[in-house]
Amino acid sequence: MAELRALIRETLRTQTCWSLPVGSLPPLVGLGGWGIDRGVDTRTGRTLTGHDWVEAVESLTPAERTGAEAVDPSVIVGQLHAHAAGVEVGPLGSSPNLLLPIDLSAAATEDAPLAPVDGAADFDAEVVDALTASAGVDVDRVFDICARSADVHANLAGLEVGLRHILERGGTISAATLSVDERVHEVRSLCATGAWA
């Protein structure tokens, strides 16, 4: 896992700033939902742990807390990786460099299965192929895959939002180049870079 994290952060350091597929950042992002008292205050950029994290969470208004709880786990993990890599991250539109975190067939949701469901590995392979196989990404194919993602407990919402953002600007998307493709405990983890113009 340490090697995997290092490779992801190395990829993130190829740019100094990124935008996530969200309209705004919550004041806090962290792993509290998994019982880990660690996160980042997005307003100050400080890492918070232990009592400091608990105090920061308790200081949120009800609206801020609701907003923080509504953020996709993949976005939280993406932001935590960016913070650890020492690069800036903001909401959609804050940078032309899009960071599109996704959860393949092991999405961290309340109703996620304890083991991969039938067809999950094939689905994950289809996602990778759609993003890497040709000179340009076939966005219609990717949108079709996104529409089927819930069947295998994947969460490709961030990918879909990011691609729509590019298309709304008349952009085209090059095939992605994988920098990480590893399996840890049957979970396939990817990191890839591509370009849009």
Show the helix and strand layout.
Elements: H1 2-12, E1 17-19, E2 28-30, E3 38-41, E4 46-49, H2 50-58, H3 62-70, H4 73-85, E5 88-90, H5 120-132, H6 139-147, H7 157-168, E6 177-184, E7 187-193
Parallel strand pairs: 1-5
Antiparallel strand pairs: 2-3, 3-4, 6-7
How would you describe this structure to a colleague?
The protein has 197 residues and is an alpha+beta fold. Helices cover 39% and strands 16% of the residues. It has 7 helices and 7 strands. It has helices spanning 2-12, 50-58, 62-70, 73-85, 120-132, 139-147, 157-168; strands at residues 17-19, 28-30, 38-41, 46-49, 88-90, 177-184, 187-193. Strands 2-3-4 form a 3-stranded antiparallel β-sheet, with helices on both faces. A hairpin with a 2-residue loop joins strand 6 (177-184) and strand 7. Helix 6 packs antiparallel against helix 7. It is globular, with a radius of gyration of 17 Å. 30% of the residues are buried.
Question: What global shape is seen?
Answer: globular
Order of helices and strands: HEEEEHHHEHHHEE
Strand ordering within the main sheet: 2-3-4
Distance between the termini: 33 Å
> What average pLDDT do the residues reach?
88
Summarize the main sheet: 3 strands, antiparallel
Number of β-strand runs: 7
Low-confidence stretches: none
Rg from Cα: 17 Å
Structural class: alpha+beta
| Percent of residues in helices | 25-40%
Helix tally equals 7
Strand content: 15-25%
Summary?
It is globular, with a radius of gyration of 17 Å. Helices cover 39% and strands 16% of the residues. It has 197 residues and is an alpha+beta fold.
